[in-house]
Amino acid sequence: YASHVNNSPPRSSLCKNLFGGSLAYSTPVVVTGSAALIRQYFLDGFYPTGQRNLKDSFDPSGNLIKAILLNGGQAMNGVDNDMGSVYPSAPYDAIQNYGRISLIDSLYIHGKSNIQARVFDRQSIFSNKQKIELFTIDTSKGCGGKEFSAMLTWTDFPGLPGCQSCLYDDLDLFVTKNSNHIQRYYPNGRDDPDTIHNNERIRIPASHGDTFEVTVDASNIVNNPHSYSLVVTGCFGGVANELNTNENVFLNDHPKQAKDNKTLIFAGVFVGLAIIAATGYFGKQLRDTRSRPVIMPEERYQMHIENIVANPSVSELTEAAFGNPVHSTLDKPLIDDS
């Protein structure tokens, strides 16, 4: 896929994106599965009405399938590095390129899509020629799409190693809105023609009654004529999407809120464990206090005297200090009855 590198992500973020989700999982499952569904869509005759009609069946080219996948891509916030840390990303950068695949924004199925599509497959063009297609936004039947999107794809010979501008056959896409030919919209987030990539997408805000002129310009063609595929999406008279998308995981993904929730959970667990530990400690102290025998004052005095008698050195010191033999105190009652 084409990409414009604005800021390279940290290696850890990029590796997590590549091996933790984007390539390891989505490529074989989401991309190939979506490509198969797109092909089946045309073979079953769902185009252009959004309802099955085998009379409309045709076999789409690989270029057309790729154009539909890229045209419907939705922007992502960035790479989620867990714990609420998100490395930012923008459309056409090295992380997301054209964004996450979304078939609901790619092809029209009656009552189950956000947009309608117009496709131009296996178109031929000669060098220095242009092909122009006109479109008018029509939301009268309930279509709720807010954008006009055009996607151009074509195949090209492999570029030479180390080349900076590698296209042999260079096609350019640009769009004008409401007959304003002074302002041109260019692809892939650029302000001028893209001479590097063979996938070009333009997105413009749109409302009912807006008109768009889409131009494919064969600025430099080596192999005449050259084939391309063009996909355009927007509101072209289709009905509203009746599906409930409120539980869309992408619209309800809030890493910062998840981080705050985890912090509160960890804090609650820590406080709970601290309370349990404190309760156990003080409970043990209370039990030990209750189980310890109570020694009355006279018993304590008797124990002290017995200790002195058992220790001659202490007895001698006591006798020298007070002039009375220690053993004489043993003949006296510990408590005076009077």
Automatic annotation (TrEMBL):
<protein>
    <recommendedName>
        <fullName>Subtilisin</fullName>
    </recommendedName>
</protein>
<dbReference type="InterPro" id="IPR008979">
    <property type="entry name" value="Galactose-bd-like_sf"/>
</dbReference>
<keyword id="KW-1133">Transmembrane helix</keyword>
<feature type="transmembrane region" description="Helical">
    <location>
        <begin position="264"/>
        <end position="283"/>
    </location>
</feature>
<keyword id="KW-0812">Transmembrane</keyword>
<comment type="similarity">
    <text>Belongs to the peptidase S8 family.</text>
</comment>
<keyword id="KW-0472">Membrane</keyword>
<dbReference type="InterPro" id="IPR051048">
    <property type="entry name" value="Peptidase_S8/S53_subtilisin"/>
</dbReference>
